[in-house]
Every structure is written in structure tokens, then in C-alpha cells.
Design goal:
This protein is α+β, with helices and mostly antiparallel strands. It is built from 3 helices and 11 strands.
């Protein structure tokens, strides 16, 4: 039995099952057609994202930059303190810390707690509470020699011209955070207790500190008020 003839037909598409490729008959030659591209799994998130679940939310948001703290701080000593109680011994940590803005303001504080981080936070609050503002010259040096004694620690701080900061122990940390340069600090005692040396240095700097109501304030130019004359 002969097959029926279809008139006015030049191209016929035959779509078979998914397992067999699709063929297109053109005249007397059968050409295999390319299968349609299947969507890539996880492509909902975009081509540049590694996973599709995130979508436009794929990447992590950029963290905001950290704000620079007002004061720079540095720990000068950490000691473990033992206290004898009825149940035995109790250990705590004592931290001595210096904070300053490198522009004349400097403070020393101590803190004690069971955890190091809590002790540091307490010491920083105490340093800010005990802040002093010292008088600096135009070259960020001292106007004259100063000395002080605290318990067994005795220190002398002298200005030097163009020699830089020459100091040791905890005095170097305090003078650097206070913003002093071209200064020499000399200890005349044999003690190596950093806290006592720091307290002696702070006691010496208090001699050139501004008074409570004398702190420098930015000057504001005042305009001359207009003169008002009365006329009858």
C-alpha cells in the first residue's frame, strides 16, 4: 500500500521522545537538530554568582569601615593577684593601661577583674577619667625640666633639641602617647616596677598640665558690633 502524498509541503519537523534526538527533514536529506539547552541548576542567582539560592542577595554585604578611636591605648603591665579566702585562693588580673591622643592629652588607669578583657575595659575607663592635658611647645617638647618622685621611683624629664624621644620603661610609652618628642627621661632609682615608674612620670607631667578651667579652647573671631546712636 502506497503512502499518501502531501502537496505543498517542503519541510516537516518530526519531534521524537527525549531519549532520541530531534530531526528535521529538508527535501530528501534528514538533518539532526541540536537539543534545546536545559537551564543550569542553581542559575537563578545569576551567572557570576557561585550559587543560585542567594540570587541578588548572593554576596556578603561589605562591612563598614571601623571608626578610629579617640584615644590610643597601650597596656604597660598585667599582674595576677592572689587573694586568700575561706574557701581557698581567688585569682584575679590587675591591668595598668595608658591612653592618649598624641596631642597633649594623657591618662593612666588600672583595672582588676577575673577576665583580661574586662580588666582592660575598666583600666581604659579609669585612664579616661584621670586624663590630663599638658602644655606643649610648638615643637611638641617641654618648656623646661621637670622631675617627680613616687614611692621608690624617681624620674627627671628634660627637653632636648633634635635628638628625638629618649626614654625607657613605661615613661617611653607615656611620653609617646602624649605626643612628646625631643625629650629625654631618666630614672634615678633602681626599681623596675613599671606601675610606680608610670605614676612618677604622670606626677611629673602634672606640673606642666593645664588647670581644670584653663584647658585650651579654639578661639573664635568676634565681629565688632554696630554702634547704635539714639536720636531724638
Amino acid at each position: 500500500m502506497s503512502e499518501p502524498i502531501i502537496e505543498n509541503t517542503t519541510t516537516e519537523e518530526v519531534v521524537k521522545t527525549a531519549e532520541t534526538p530531534t530531526t528535521v527533514e529538508t527535501g530528501n536529506v534528514a538533518v539532526a537538530a541540536e537539543p534545546e539547552a536545559r537551564p543550569v541548576r542553581g542559575a537563578r542567582g545569576g551567572q557570576n554568582n557561585r550559587g543560585g539560592k542567594g540570587g541578588a542577595r548572593g554576596g556578603r554585604p561589605a562591612r563598614p569601615p571601623r571608626e578610629k578611636p579617640e584615644f590610643d591605648s597601650k597596656t604597660i603591665s598585667i599582674r595576677r593577684v592572689t587573694r586568700v579566702v575561706s574557701g581557698g585562693r581567688r585569682f584575679t588580673l590587675s591591668v595598668a593601661l595608658v591612653a592618649g591622643d598624641r596631642n597633649g592629652r594623657i591618662g593612666l588607669g588600672t583595672g582588676k577583674a577575673l577576665d583580661t578583657q574586662v580588666a582592660i575595659e575598666k583600666a581604659l575607663k579609669a585612664a579616661k577619667r584621670n586624663m590630663i592635658h599638658i602644655k606643649l611647645t610648638k615643637t611638641k617638647s617641654l618648656p623646661h625640666d621637670i622631675d617627680a618622685k613616687f614611692k621608690s621611683a624617681q624620674v627627671m624629664i628634660m627637653p632636648n633639641k633634635g635628638r628625638g624621644l629618649i626614654a625607657g620603661s613605661s615613661a617611653r610609652t607615656i611620653l609617646a602617647l602624649a605626643g612628646l618628642s625631643n625629650v629625654t627621661a631618666k630614672f634615678y632609682s633602681g626599681t623596675k616596677n613599671k606601675l610606680n615608674n608610670a605614676r612618677a612620670t604622670m606626677k611629673a607631667l602634672e606640673q606642666i598640665a593645664y588647670a581644670h578651667n584653663e584647658a585650651p579652647v579654639a578661639k573664635v573671631a568676634m565681629q565688632d558690633a554696630p554702634v547704635i546712636t539714639e536720636t531724638n
